Amino acid sequence: MGKIGYLGPKATFTHQAVQSVFPNEDYIPYKTIPACIDAVAKGDVSYGVVPLENTLEGSVNLTLNYLIHETRMPIVGEVVLPIRQHLMVHPQNEGINERLEAVYSHPHAIAQCHKFLYQYLSHADIHETSSTAWAAQYVQEYPERKIAAIANELAAAEYGLTIAKGDIHDYSHNHTRFVVLHKESDAFVPFSKEDGEKTTLLVQLPADDQSGSLHQVLSAFAWRRLNLSKIESRPMKTGLGNYFFIIDIEQKLDDVLIPGAISELEALGCTVSILGTYAYQVME
Ligand SMILES: O=C(O)C(=O)C[C@]1(C(=O)O)C=C[C@@H](O)C=C1
């Protein structure tokens, strides 16, 4: 299977996603999402796993931007995990919640707990880190400081922290989609079960902006009865008002329908790239 890269350090949510898809393999943690994607491109690891979207916070922009603008690595699989966020402190600081001076975590985790932080910890400074587990490790290293991390149970155990308050995410339906990347677009992913299939397209509208262009794009899918599960616009970074559209279709690339839709979009003057065609697994 080769080595599997992920957004580390040990005990991030991404680490959990990796373990659920690739049990008992060699894992390599990377400090950032771009470093993990580049490791796949350079062949330092065979597969890379990075977060893509959260139910409460939406897309992980860093992942999307890097995959679109910097290093196009095919998506070969997706895993969806339930996300439970906990507030954790060094055991020496148990019971000091009201006197906490700062809270550390990944921006997405902080955003998932906004209401909790506003209600109970508005006196504390909030610091963003490259991952939740990085924040937990930092709290472990500074027992003399009155600080906490927001991270998962695995991180509390890995870094010897005490959970001061469990399940602090603002809405119970909290899930994150993680994508599996590989240099070969048809690489095998050892899912224990498959819950569905998807194809992700990147569509650029014709340069001469005309009324109804997006409507025509959507029609190409609608009359073929291709169900879409997501459409999102992302800046092309060429000027205000210039966007790509990322479109998820609820099926794998076939011989007729999706190629037909792509040809129709190209005839309309769109530029279309396939970011991946893959199966996904939903973990309980
Ligand atoms: O920091 C982590 O533990 C991650 O795996 C990153 C990440 C994210 O980017 O969304 C993954 C899942 C949670 O939604 C919060 C953080």
Automatic annotation (TrEMBL):
Domain Prephenate dehydratase: 3-183
Record field: catalytic activity: prephenate + H(+) = 3-phenylpyruvate + CO2 + H2O
Any Pfam family the entry gives: PDT
CDD domains documented for this protein: ACT_CM-PDT, PBP2_Sa-PDT_like
Swiss-Prot/TrEMBL GO biological process terms: L-phenylalanine biosynthetic process
Membrane spanning residue stretches: none
UniProt domain ACT: residue ranges: 202-279
Keywords: Amino-acid biosynthesis, Aromatic amino acid biosynthesis, Lyase, Phenylalanine biosynthesis
One Gene Ontology cellular component annotation held by this UniProt entry: cytoplasm
Entry EC number(s): 4.2.1.51
Gene Ontology MF annotations: prephenate dehydratase activity
PROSITE patterns: ACT (PS51671), PREPHENATE_DEHYDR_2 (PS00858), PREPHENATE_DEHYDR_3 (PS51171)
InterPro entries: ACT-like_dom_sf, ACT_dom, Chor_mutase/pphenate_deHydtase, Preph_deHydtase, Preph_deHydtase_CS
Pathway(s) where this gene product acts: Amino-acid biosynthesis; L-phenylalanine biosynthesis; phenylpyruvate from prephenate: step 1/1
Top-level class of the enzyme under EC nomenclature: lyase
UniProt xrefs under Gene3D superfamilies: 3.30.70.260, Periplasmic binding protein-like II
Site (Essential for prephenate dehydratase activity) residue list: T176
Protein name, as recorded: Prephenate dehydratase
Organism per entry: Priestia koreensis
